[in-house]
Design a protein that fits this description.
By secondary structure, the protein is mostly helical. Helix content is about 45%, strand content about 10%. It has helices spanning about 15-20, 35-45, 60-75, 90-95; strands at about 5, 25-30. Strand 1, helix 1 (about 15-20) and strand 2 (about 25-30) form a beta-alpha-beta unit.
């Protein structure tokens, strides 16, 4: 599925490379996230593209709950998840407790 992703100029090189490595069209613009968001909203409005907010979308959080279930099924047991350098895990963690009672 084609994707066009907007990130601010302060994004880490690791994040930028990961996005490019997934084959997405990457637009690096604006000094802050709000600037990138505004640019993406303008493009979405002019192209009829479906916009998915990076972290403020209930559907995204629910999807991360599904990811958490898959991780729990594949894990050999309880443990600690150590993200790779530059890996963004905030959204995964915010949705991870959706299906798993604590």
């Amino acid at each position: 599925m084609p994707a066009r992703i907007y990130v601010p100029t302060v994004s880490s090189p690791a994040k930028i490379e990961r996005i490019r490595g997934c084959g997405a069209t990457l637009v690096v613009t604006g000094e802050r996230y709000a600037d990138s968001l505004a640019a993406s909203q303008e493009w979405a409005a002019s192209s009829n593209a479906l916009q998915v907010h990076a972290f403020d979308a209930p559907q995204t959080l629910c999807g991360q709950g599904g990811v958490a279930l898959e991780l729990a099924e594949q894990a050999p047991g309880p443990g600690i998840y150590r993200p790779e350098p530059g890996e963004q895990v905030g959204v995964v963690l915010s949705g991870a407790n959706t299906p798993i009672p604590l």
